[in-house]
Amino acid sequence: MGSFSIWHWVIVLVIVMLVFGTKKLRNIGSDLGGAVKGFKQGMKDGGSDDEQNSAKLADDSNKKSDTIDVEAKEKSSS
Q: From CA 30, how far away is CA 38, in angstroms rounded?
């Protein structure tokens, strides 16, 4: 029950290639690569959106300096 030798992995690889075929495995590999690339691009774009939003909020707070902030309280019926 030790670790698998290289021959075990070769046999597993041959069985997987026989079951799925090389074309399907190639398609799965390219789909997985595209998904990873899309995820990385989304993370890069998401970070820049957050920075843009925080800069926009800072600009908006400077423009609206005449706004009065109030707190609403409920009436208590006694």
A: 12
